[in-house]
Amino acid sequence: MLYSNWSLNHFTAYTRNPQLRRTALFILGLSRGLSFTAHNVFDKSPQSHVTAFVQGNRLNKIPTKFELCTILNSCAKTQNFRLGSQIHAQILDIGFDQNLYINSSLVNMYAKCGAIVDAMKVFNGMEFHDQVSWTSIISGLSQNGQGKEAISLFKKMLRTQIIPNCFTYVSVISSCTKQESVSKCSELLHAHVIKLGHESNKFVISSLIDNYSKCGKMDKVVMLFEACIIKDSILLNSMISAYSHNLLGEEALKLFIKMHKENVSVSEHSLTSILDACGALTVLQQGKQIHALVTKTGSNQNTFIIGALINMYSKCGNIDEASHVFDQTVHKNNILWTSMMSAYAQSGRGLDALKIFDHLVMEKEIDFTPDHVCFTVVLTACNHSGLLEKGVDYFEKMRSYNLAPEIDQYACLIDLYARKGDLESARKVFDEMPFEGNAVMWSCFLSCCKEYGNVELGREAAYKLFELEPCSPVPYLILADICGAAGLWNEVGNIRKMMRENGVRKCVVGWSWVEVDNEVHVFSVGDLSHVRSDDIYLELEKLSLEMMSECSKQYNILISES
DNA sequence: CTAGGGTTAG
Question: Per residue, what are the HEC states of A167-201?
Answer without folding.
Answer: HHHHHHHHHHHHCHHHCCHHHHHHHHHHHCCCCCC
